[in-house]
Amino acid sequence: MPVYKDAKGGWRVVFRYTDFRGQKKQTQKRGFSTQREAKQWEYEQMLKTKSSLDMTFGSFVEIFVNDRRERLKESTWHNKEHIIRTKILPYFKDRKIAEIQPRDVIAWQNEMMHGKQKNGKPFSQDYLRNLHTQLSCIFNHAVRYYGLESNPAKLAGSMGKKGAREMLFWTQEEYRKFAESMMDKPVSFYAFEMLYWCGIRCGELLALTPEDFDFEKKKLRINKSYQRIGGRDLITDPKTKKSNRTIDLPGFLADEIRDYLKMLYGIRPNDRMFTITKNYLHHEMDRGAKEAGVKRIRVHDLRHSHVSLLIQLGYSAVAIAERLGHESIEITYRYAHMFPSVQQDMAKSLDELRKEEEDVSEES
What we know:
Elements: E1 3-5, E2 11-18, E3 24-32, H1 35-49, H2 57-68, H3 74-92, H4 102-113, H5 125-146, H6 152-156, H7 172-181, H8 186-198, H9 202-206, E4 213-214, E5 219-222, E6 225-229, E7 232-236, E8 245-248, H10 251-263, H11 278-292, H12 301-312, H13 317-324, H14 328-334, H15 343-363
Antiparallel strand pairs: 1-2, 2-3, 4-5, 5-8, 6-7
Helix pairs in contact: 7-8, 7-11, 8-10, 8-12, 13-14
């Protein structure tokens, strides 16, 4: 495992090792400023090859990436990779993974909780929780497969809260005002019509093609999602297994989408109908909410608005979950405060049951 003085300047390392198949391999890296830096890199490669927990956290992350990346959807990995690269590695990269303690994680948490978004606002509770989950996932991998004694992130305790962000929604009247302000741009109007009246996810909307619609039966098939990653358009499977579904369309919406398709000259059955981005929809929400004089909500809050509308119409959590591609228990948990309370009816029924028992006892 020699270290050489490179003819082009700097130092170069040639590292030879045996892979998991027992085959001899060789890799090299050049451009080190000093011999010490070159030897340190060589030492880290040796530790990684032996899966020694004397390696740095940064070196273990490379192992983690190799182990996990191919098992996840590209869009999912893209989000994880961004968190690891920008929020985790800058703090733990050069520390030996076996020496990181719960107190180190707590110090990192405190810094994250004081962190700011680009707009100057603090990180959301959901985002903080996501950061901690990702760090804990890396340590869990080291515990389960590489012999790390314990997970310091687990011992430190979590930060943030799931679902802590306020759930906003529009009433039907608020949406009507907003929709009127969108009529000057057909692609915006019809996109928001689909989001509000179907409750589909943004990625599901942007992946829709004409062949997904059966206008005779007024049905819509949802079996894919759109993401834009690294400047590339990517069509993936939906978010969950339950997300593969077919939903019924209200008649007026089926007619609207049929009219919209007539505007798209030369569109083919498997072409995307809404060749816009999530960012475009966010900007249109800003514009429309301002013009309509209604509160600004997120694009995803249109999904909450659809659920609210269905609850008002008296539909059960099971029926709503089937339409949205959710588990019914998740609908019950997330929207419990919107369902009509039956507590008084329960108490009344129990009271009547008790009185019936007392009446029977007195008769006997």
